[in-house]
Amino acid sequence: MTTELTFYTTDGCHLCEEAKELLQQLLSACPEQYQIETIDIIEAESLIQQYGTRIPVVKRNSSVSDLGWPFDYEGLLKFVGSNNE
Questions:
Q1: Left (φ > 0), alpha (ψ -120 to 50) or beta: where does 12 sit?
Q2: What is the C-alpha separation between 69 and 29, in angstroms, rounded?
Q3: Which CATH number belongs to the domain containing residue 60 in this structure?
Q4: Closest by alpha carbon to 81, among 33, 21, 38?
Q5: One pLDDT digit (tens) per residue for the chain, 85 residues
Q6: How many domains does the chain have?
């Protein structure tokens, strides 16, 4: 079963680049297990208001919870593997 994730980010965000590296590490370790959609929050005012001060943010599409920065690889693994609704 594939876990679908959304990665909220924007250009020029150095923290987002660090989070992107962690997500790439996750995909390299488990390529069949995760599908990640990247969304630039600049695309919509509502996204800027919701995530502007929190990016980078990873959201499990099957859950209402999300993971905002700061997080490390272990924290990311714990979050994507949890069943938090």
A1: left
A2: 21
A3: 3.40.30.10
A4: 33
A5: 789 999 999 999 999 999 999 999 999 998 889 999 999 999 999 999 999 999 999 999 998 999 999 999 999 999 998 654 4
A6: 1
